[in-house]
Write a structure and sequence with these properties.
74% helix
Length: 116
């Protein structure tokens, strides 16, 4: 009986702490989910074009960085804010997982548009 009296409170503690809300709040200075999805989708498209040889470049590392900078500027951002935001998302795997799931959806849409 004494084991049962100890078991019930422990079970309640596990349930209480196991059900806490794991939602991560995105701070105001971090790029929004939708924006980071669009930016990263554009960056991945540019990287794929480079790998396929569709971008004719001599110094691919320098040029890739220039393309990345152009993409970031297209969204009216600076590199520091992008890097800070990307670091935030990579530090929160559940958010990064959602970002990359949405990137796959976005890339699929763009592929379908290009094929039509």
């Amino acid at each position: 009986m004494k084991k049962c009296q100890l078991f019930v409170p422990l079970l309640l503690l596990f349930v209480a702490f196991g059900c806490k809300n794991n939602t991560v709040r995105i701070p105001a200075h971090i790029i929004s989910h939708d924006s980071i999805v669009n930016i990263l989708a554009d960056i991945h498209i540019m990287e794929a074009l480079n790998i396929q040889g569709a971008i004719n470049i001599h110094d691919s590392v320098k040029t890739l960085e220039n393309y990345k900078l152009e993409i970031i500027e297209k969204y009216n951002l600076d590199v520091k804010r992008f890097d800070t935001s990307y670091a935030f998302y990579t530090a929160n795997p559940q958010l990064l997982d959602k970002v990359y799931n949405d990137i796959l959806i976005e890339l699929s849409k763009k592929k379908a548009e290009a094929e039509n």
